[in-house]
Specification:
Layout: H1 12-20, E1 24-28, H2 37-47, E2 52-56, E3 81-84, H3 88-100, E4 105-108, H4 115-123, E5 127-130, H5 134-137
Parallel strand pairs: 1-2, 1-3, 3-4, 4-5
C-alpha cells in the first residue's frame, strides 16, 4: 500500500495520555473466543492499566466480568476510547459510530489501518491512534 499525503502519524503524547488516564474503553471485537487477541489485550487494559472495559461484539458477550453490548450506541454513559479489533475494511463504520456516540478517542489495533476513517475521526475532534497496540506501547511509557 502506498502512503498518501496526510497519512496519519501517531502522537506519542496522545498515546501516553490515553494509557495513563483511567477511562472507559469500548473494545469492539471482544468476545469470549480465547484465540482472539482482544481477550488478552482487554485483560491487560483492565488488570494492568486499570481501565474499565466494555465488550462490544456481534453476540454482545460478557467478558472479564463486564457486561457486553452489540453496538456502541447501546452503551450507557461516556465512552473514552473505542478500541477496534476489526478488519481494516470494517473499521470505518466503527469509527463513524464512535464519532456519532461522542467517544473521545479511537484506537485502531495493530494491522488495522484506514486513513480516511482516521481523518474523519480527527476532523470530528477525536484523538486517533492507529496500527499499534496498548500492550506494545505501554512499556515505552513506563507502564
Amino acid at each position: 500500500m502506498e502512503l498518501v499525503s496526510g497519512a496519519h502519524v501517531n502522537d506519542p503524547a496522545v498515546i501516553g495520555r490515553l494509557l495513563r488516564e483511567k477511562g472507559r474503553w469500548a473494545v469492539v471485537g471482544l468476545s469470549n473466543n480465547p484465540r482472539r487477541t482482544a481477550v488478552g489485550v482487554s485483560k491487560y487494559l483492565q488488570d494492568h492499566l486499570g481501565m474499565e472495559i466494555i465488550p462490544v461484539s456481534l453476540k454482545g458477550d460478557d467478558v472479564h466480568g463486564n457486561k457486553g453490548y452489540r453496538r456502541l450506541s447501546d452503551i450507557p454513559g461516556q465512552i473514552d476510547v473505542v478500541d477496534c479489533f476489526v478488519n481494516s475494511t470494517r473499521v470505518g463504520d466503527i469509527v463513524d459510530q464512535a464519532i456519532a456516540v461522542g467517544a473521545k478517542a479511537v484506537w485502531l489495533q495493530l494491522g488495522v489501518i484506514d486513513e480516511a476513517a482516521a481523518a474523519r475521526a480527527a476532523a470530528a475532534g477525536l484523538d486517533v491512534v492507529m496500527n499499534t497496540c496498548p500492550v506494545i506501547e505501554a512499556p515505552y511509557y513506563g507502564l
